[in-house]
Amino acid sequence: MITVGLTGSIGMGKSTVAQMFVDEGVPVFDADETVHALQGPGRALVQAIEAAFPGTTGAEGVNRAALREVVFGDEAAFCRLEAMVHPAVAAERDAFLAANADAPVVVLDVPLLFEAGGWAGVDKIVVVSAPPEVQRDRVLGRPGMTAERFEAILVRQLPDAEKRRRADFVICTDAPIEETREKVRAVLTCLTTPAGG
């Protein structure tokens, strides 16, 4: 099995590219989706988060907007939250890898692959990228997003240029969707073609 780490800064099109890998039949582990699930009603993380950050949960699980307000700009609070979330996500990732052990290629879709150290546990790295102006337009077009919040997110992420430098493959998404899909297919061809083939 080849384990691919898929990453990219906010607004680069990573989720779209991840879906393209799914469309090609590749099992994809979505770290963000896993966090959402772990913070849903009745899940273990809900109780731990409520204990650490009172008033941030309810009948629907974690109120992500309320939690975001509590940890926004508070480095110590953010680190406490990460210390709860990361081990739970790692356990889910390990279960995913075990369940897909026969797949020739699996993708781990992890936004903070470099920042959280996950790059060391994958065979190849695919970085999804786009020009800064495209990224900014996409992100500020999201409901509830502000320029201040966007800048705060960017500060926590490795710069795009550094991610690209450390990648095995870069997929740029400032192109027609079918061009991006062809790039995904080209990456898969490279990964699955035997050396010298």
Question: What does this 3D model show about the protein?
Answer:
The chain has 197 residues and is α/β, with parallel strands linked by helices. The protein has helices at 14-23, 31-38, 44-52, 64-71, 75-99, 132-140, 147-156, 160-166, 177-192; strands at 2-7, 28-30, 57-58, 61-62, 105-109, 124-129, 169-172. It has 2 domains: 1-27 and 104-197, 3-Layer(aba) Sandwich (Rossmann fold), CATH 3.40.50; 34-99, no CATH class. 52% of the residues lie in helices and 14% in strands. The strands form 2 sheets. The protein has a 5-stranded parallel sheet, with helices on both faces. Strands 3-4 form a two-stranded antiparallel sheet. The longest helix is centred in the middle third of the chain and has 25 residues, at 75-99.
The count of helical stretches stands at 9
Shape: globular
- Reading the helices and strands in chain order gives EHEHHEEHHEEHHHEH
Assign a percent range to the helix content: 40-55%
Radius of gyration: 18 Å
- Mean of all residue-level pLDDT scores: 91
Which stretches of 5+ consecutive residues score pLDDT under 50? none
State the total count of DSSP E strands: 7
For the sheet with most strands, the description reads: 5 strands, parallel
Q: What structural class do you assign from the helix and strand content? A: alpha/beta
* Side-by-side strand order of the widest sheet: 2-5-1-6-7
